[in-house]
Amino acid sequence: MSVITAASRVTLHFELSLEDGQIVDSTFSQAPASFVFGDGSLLPAFESALLGMTEGQEGSYVMAPENAFGAHNENNVQRMPRSQFSMDLEEGMVVSFADVSKNELPGVIANIGEKEVLVDFNHPLAGRSLTFRVQVIAIEDAA
């Protein structure tokens, strides 16, 4: 029987859900996902949870924020002049910004004031505990 190791290619169904049960992402109603262990497709803690699982096995793991998308960092919340925005803004909308290296950086509009806009550059799932549910479909040697 195949067992997931750090040298595996894994095909699985997965589901990520919030503390209240709201599903964030799932492959259970579509084609399963495949990844090579260590390729960066999954967060390290999610990969670690899979180690030792076998084909057909199912599991459910609660991931604390520090093992998922990190803690919410107040330093990633920025105040910007309202005049910098030439569009209609709504709280919760995602706006694309460029960082100093001209890389795209998404920010969530957290609050709109008369003169300032609060933009949150944390990952939308930062600070949240997530439930990671998996069903292993196939395991192969990645080499």
From TrEMBL:
Residues 7-81 form the PPIase FKBP-type domain. The keyword Phosphoprotein does not apply. It catalyses: [protein]-peptidylproline (omega=180) = [protein]-peptidylproline (omega=0). Its EC number is 5.2.1.8. Signal peptide: none annotated. GO terms for molecular function: isomerase activity. Keywords: Isomerase, Rotamase. InterPro entries: PPIase_dom_sf (IPR046357), PPIase_FKBP_dom (IPR001179), SlpA/SlyD-like_ins_sf (IPR048261). Gene3D superfamilies: 2.40.10.330, 3.10.50.40. Pfam families: FKBP_C. Belongs to the FKBP-type PPIase family. This is Peptidyl-prolyl cis-trans isomerase.
